[in-house]
């Protein structure tokens, strides 16, 4: 279970007690549940060998929280009871909150600074007075520093603390802050108990009202917080009030969770190894993968291919697929249907919500969560939006092994600083850039990062969904978008949202300008999603053309190299046939003047609105080859004509000898000789050189005018398609 109740009252953690330099020091704290914040507190205590005793285990918390009216009286009651069992006169007690507190240094430094204060009780100090501003004038003035008491942390000798709480008789919901404040502003009680404030934050740093004062200090393989206003190094950092995001940020580093010398020191702690488990059995954790299609999105077919390739046993996966593309109801149905037709039986189960069910996106998220909550076999819910490019086939395994209640893989957009997480929030709850954001995105800092917002993809433990996150309105808000509302509620429930950049996981597509008026709309994604376009449509060996001279010369000054994938060839053919307006092979009103010397049965790129994309293709993938193979010639990749030609025995089987109206010509075979058609090819008459077995996706590049007089050889069976471009006419 994610947040379990602590055992009643005697829950005690001794963190390396043998190394404590003063055996008369005890840390008391109050915690009713074992949350992520509490585990962070204990880890920092263990790092410095503090001895911790936890009060309130097993009790229901009635003391309020920072978002509600004053509370905390329950802590005073528990402290009073605990102090009754302590008889040592010289026992030093540190009493602190736990869920939002981190130790930045050890007990030796704490005791030294406490003794230097020369008082029997030292309270943390705050810039802001709370909860009763009318008491401001009654607070003693200090020569320098903060003058208002903070009840979230104080240290003192046991007898003095006993005396301080001896009069407590309030309710658990009463204010501990107000109780201690009234003692402090009473001169007689203040003197009798011998209380002072840590005005310059030498022991305690309260973050509320002091965010501009606190920075991270990296030095000699160690990291801690520094107060730049007073030039002090606080021992204890408290994210009091509305500063939970800031304590989370500092907690990514303090104490020594990440340093420049060591990198991440906790990334291999408390793992859940999956190696060695038998794939065919039920040893792997059960996972529900939620797939959400909420808008027209490019490369959905590729998304399902990557999903299929995840290295995780499919018999331990249930799929929840939500396809509700409003106003484009049928756009992605063929993609989903084809995937399920071939692969549904491989998975443990599949639940599909289609457009016809008219379920809104927020409800779909809740239905997905319920599918996991209600299945006793489900241990994780893996949420993926369909615009995620999941490149790393081990992503699901990696996230499970990291063993966090909530964790997301960092996703990027090529050439941009955009990611699927925010490092900080603005005052109104929107995006703000944290100091370490760029370093994390660019991989200069690698590790696990507690962040305030993630989107698009995350893994969440089913235990968290059944306990802390069991509410049915997690995505609902009157002011925030559903994703922001969800993250806000996860944070407010005390669940840490981690993002990891320890591996490269993938990217997120741009969907803003995705058009759906073509058969294969992904062909038009060269500008919005160039990396995905290249992976889908450019031949896997194209990179070798320039790097390894992976190029052939079948005829003089004719160069042959791979450029298109089979998918690119298939999509271009289908796009043209879908458009269907093939020329008649005679006079052509598409050309200026209407006359074509050697006409073909073809469709021009500009007829389907592909001229801008084709020009970019020529610039990015043809021009570099041209400039390497024809030294001294530099092309701007201008073209008047670019078209797909169709050869059929009963339509136009061949093309008579001719020169091209170009400086050079590109001719790419779109289908396969011997399979799709028989015959065909190209013959250069001057050299009596023929290429009779053109390879699908390979480009022939040759001079157009003067030297390379050529003809199209007859296609005797089937249908042959080529794409031709006259470059630099």
Describe this structure in words.
With 729 residues, this protein is α+β, with helices and mostly antiparallel strands. The protein is built from 18 helices and 43 strands. It has an 8-stranded mixed beta sheet, sandwiched between helices. A 7-stranded mixed beta sheet has the order 2-5-3-6-9-8-10, sandwiched between helices. It has a 7-stranded antiparallel beta sheet with strand order 31-32-40-36-43-34-33, covered by helices on one side. The N and C termini lie far apart (71 Å).
Spatial arrangement of strands, main beta sheet = 19-18-17-20-28-22-29-26
- Determine the structural class based on helices, strands and strand pairing: alpha+beta
Average pLDDT across residues?
92
How many DSSP helices?
18
DSSP E strands, number? 43
Residues in helices, as a percent range: 10-25%
- The residue ranges in which pLDDT falls below 50 over 5 or more consecutive positions are 1-23
Task: Characterize the main sheet.
Answer: 8 strands, mixed
Binned strand content: 25-35%
Distance between the termini: 71 Å
**Overall 3D shape:** elongated
Radius of gyration: 35 Å
For this entry, give a set of tags.
about 725 residues; alpha+beta; eight-stranded mixed β-sheet; seven-stranded mixed β-sheet; 18 helices; elongated; disordered N terminus; signal; vitamin c; glycoprotein; endoplasmic reticulum; iron ion binding
At a glance:
The protein is 24% helix and 26% strand. It is of the alpha+beta class. A hairpin with a 2-residue loop joins strand 12 and strand 13.
